[in-house]
Structures are given as C-alpha cells and as structure tokens.
Amino acid sequence: MKRSFRSALGGIAFLAAVVLTGCLTAQADDSTLPHLVWKDGRHALIVDGAPFLILGAQSHNSSAWPATLPKVWSAIETAQVNTLEVPVYWEQLEPEQGKFDYSIVDQLLTGAREHKVRLVLLWFGTWKNGSSHYLPMWLKRQPELCPRIIGKDGRRVDSPSPHAPALLEADSRAFRALMRHLKEADPPHTVIMVQVENEPGSWNTVRDYSPAAQKLFTAPVPAELLKALGKDGRAGGDWTAVFGRDADEFFQAWSVARFIGQVAAAGKAEYPLPLYCNAALRDPLTQPAASSYESGGPTDNVLDIWKAAAPAVDVLAPDIYMDDSAHYLKVLELYSRPDNALFVPETIGSPTGTRYCYAALARGAIGWSPFGIDSPPRSATAAGTLPAGDAAVNPLAINCRVLGPMMREVAQWSFEGRLHAAVEEKDEHQQTLALGRWQADITFGPPTWGYGRNPKGNAEPVGRVLVAQLGENEFLVTGYLCRVDFKIADAASGAQRDFLRVEEGGYEGGVFRPVRIWNGDETDWGLNFGSAPQVLRVQLGTY
Ligand code: DGJ
C-alpha cells in the first residue's frame, strides 16, 4: 500500500497540494468542476477530484453530424481512448441570429456518456485555420460586420480581421450561449475542456493593414503588454519603435489574442471550464520569417504576448504534425512552461507518431490526442513494424491499452515529475535515462534472447519506453519493441544491478496487482518488451 499514489496517504498529500497551490481556473462554487492546478512548475487537469490524463483523439472537421457520428464512436472504441475532441460549429449552433440549436451538442453529450468517454469541445467560431469559414450564413451575408484582413498590397486576404467589434460581440454572444448550455446540460462534467477557435492567425499576410489596424499599429503599444514583457521603459513608443522587425507579427498576435481572450472570458463568465487555444506551429529549430507560417496564433515566439493578452485562455497548445524527434521534442519543451500546461490537442496517429505520447508525458503533458480518428484505422503492420499476428492492432490503441487502465496514476506521476521516457530515433537504437542512483539502458528493436544478442532497432522508429520512478530503487516500466536494463549510475562504485523482484501486473482501484513474477529468460538479458501491453514493477538492489 505504501507504494500506491492512490493510497489514502497519497490522496491526502494530493489534496493538500491542490489546496496549497494555485488553481489556474476559477472554480466558481462548484468544486467538482474540471480545473487545472499547478505546483513546482508542473500541471494537472483535475477531473472528478483527481489528476486526469487525456488519452484523446480528434474527429475530422466535418464529422460532428448525426450522419457521421456513429463512425466516430466506433473509431474511439477501437482506439480505446478516454476522450473525444470534436467540433461545435458556429454556423450550426446559431443558424439564425440569436436563435441557438443545441441538438448536436446534446447528442455529443449523450453519445460520450454512452461510450464512457469525456469530451473536449472545439469552438469553430471566428477562426478556423486562419479563415472564418464557420461563420453563420446570416453573418457571412453582412461582410461589413465581419471584414477580412487587408494585406500589405491593399488586397483582401481570406482571414478575419481581429479589429471587428461587431464580430467580436457576435462570437462572444454565441460562445457564451454554448457555455451556458453546457453548464445546464452537463452536470456530470462529460465536457472537461473547451478549445476557443481553431488555429487562429492569418496566412498570406503577417498582419492586418486596414485603416483601423493602421491606426492602432502607429499608436503607443498598450502599457499592459509592455509591463508583461518587462519593457515598461518603452512606454509611449509605437509598435515599430518598441519591437522593430517583429512589430508586424507581434501586433497581429496581440490583436488576435486580445479578441479571443474576450470571447474566452465571456464564455468563462457563464461556466468556468478550462479553456485553450491551439497553434499551427512554426519551425521550432530555426527562426523562419513570419510570412512563412500562420502569423498571430500562439506560436512559440509569442507565447508571452498571448499570456498577457488572453488571461482567460488557460493553455496554449501545439498541434504537432512534425514526425522527426528533434522537432517534436523541441516543441514539447517550448510549450511546457510553469505558466503553461503542456497539452497536445492534435498530432500524428501513425505507428511512428504514437511513440511521442510517452515523450509528452515525461514532459508533464495533461493530454495527447491524434487528429482524424474516424479515418479507416491504419494498420501498424502496414509500416512493417509489428510481428505477424498483430495486424489488427491500432497504433493509438497500443498506447491506450497500456496507459488507459492506469491513467489516474500516470497523471499523478506526471504532476509529480516522476515520469521519464525514451522514443526511438531513426538511426540510433540505444538510449539511456538518468534516474537518480540508477541509469536505464534502452535498446530498441524486437526482443532477442541470449548474450551479445541485443535488439538491432525496428524497421521504422516505433520503439518507446515509459518509466515512473516510484522510489529510489523502484520503478514502474512499460515499453514497446525494446529492451530495458538498469545499472548503477556511478560506474566507479563497482556495484552491480540485481533484480530483487520484477512483477508484471496492472493497477486496479489505485493498487498495483501483480499477475506473475518475471525471472530467468525474462530478466537475464534485460526486460524485453514486444508489442503486448505489459507493465512491470521493478525493485532493484546491488551485489
Ligand atoms: C489542423 C487543424 O487544426 C485541423 O482542424 C485540421 O484542419 C487539420 N489541420 C488537418 O490536417
């Protein structure tokens, strides 16, 4: 019992931590409301009173309709996720000005409860991938209320201007109506977070050059932003004077974030669920020109501006579609900050992409969620990565089968900074993890047995390892197509690793229940993981 973080002692410690640390989201008077907490620079999403890990999947854009939802529900069952991310379309929610149709939202709530999953709703309002295509028809028919951006050359760009008071008011009203409805229709808190807009910003112009925007651009930078950036001394300067060559992009970021922050605040005043905004990323390893990516969204270089402009938005979240580890891991690093919980709301669900879930968890992620769940399931064997016999294995289910049954424990370990991960690199099959007194040596590839016969890597880099440090000499280990062994970090000590006990099992009701002890061939050459969802509790000693 003393090892269980869901034990009574752990529970008391956790509650104390929550009370003593900050709540990023106002809880109003409903303490059962999902909310974010932080401690020592790490974050947790609290659902039903304890840390919750979003093992999610997002539907395709046009799938939240009665005709297409059955396919979505069936796909989430196959993938075994615990959360569905699904859009709410402004054009559907408010087909006539001021008249709201909640029928699809209600169907989503009912369907999610039937399938025992939570929901993250995506508000497709003013922005969807930099455009405004989800505006209701009654609004599209009044373009003077929802002007497009004017580019530098004076031509209209297919992106909404953030300098549009009537549009801001209409979007805020609609989002407020959605949140008010959720408050009434969702006492069990099926919806645990809401995304405000979708990949906002503008393609094809770094900012708006309309007369309204020009007036603001040549006015002094708001004192509030200068203060937040520690540039108080620049008071009175306009955007170019203060930010030089970044002025156009920073102005666009402030303008878009300011707009969305007000929409978010309007919704939160009705019902204070955690809110987030997702970002179409820029290359995190270079300093590309703002004209080459979506400008004004929460890209890594303007997170501070977004935090200052939109305090009602709790989380700025990266949509990661990069399938090389250098880029992927850098994005995880940039978005996990003391003032920002790491959440990956869209990413790649391929056999290689799903390995990054473990890397995100080791960075403290509150959730990880591939896009396009209702595509035909991709077979892992199509990439030639799984042993015969596993053809039906869904790449996402590989993670969910392991993590799902212990997601509460994993979320708690993540919050406590106890998780470590390694993901296979394309041409590098060995890695190490520093674990205090110990070092884990990881070799990727299908299991092999016998001295000198180390795994030689997988045909595609699909290998992954997740280690939770439960005590100085005790670890919870799971892996996929790899071998894990341990040694004493201080090689000069002469001490050798001894497996005191290796138990395969799983968590039930917060307690680890072993089903067998591994020994002999199963431990003599290290801990070999194939494609089965195996979880080991490992106690180490020395001789
Ligand atoms: C990112 C967007 O946020 C999603 O809604 C969707 O359009 C995907 N791109 C498509 O790949």
Features:
alpha/beta; TIM Barrel; Chondroitinase Ac, Chain A, domain 3; 9-stranded parallel sheet; globular; binds (2R,3S,4R,5S)-2-(hydroxymethyl)piperidine-3,4,5-triol
How does this structure look, described?
There is one protein chain. The protein has about 550 residues and is an alpha/beta fold. The protein has 2 domains: about 5-415, TIM Barrel (Alpha-Beta Barrel), CATH 3.20.20; about 420-540, Sandwich (Chondroitinase Ac, Chain A, domain 3), CATH 2.60.220. It has helices spanning about 10-20, 70-80, 90-95, 105-115, 135-140, 165-185, 210-215, 225-230, 240-245, 245-270, 305-310, 325-335, 355-360, 395-405, 405-415; strands at about 35-40, 40-45, 50, 55-60, 85-90, 120-130, 150, 155-160, 190-200, 275-280, 315-320, 345, 345, 365-370, 420-425, 430-435, 440-445, 465-470, 475-480, 480-490, 495-510, 510-520, 525-530, 535-540. The model is unreliable at about 1-30 and about 375-390 (pLDDT under 50). (2R,3S,4R,5S)-2-(hydroxymethyl)piperidine-3,4,5-triol (DGJ) binds near residues 199 and 346. (2R,3S,4R,5S)-2-(hydroxymethyl)piperidine-3,4,5-triol binds next to loops.
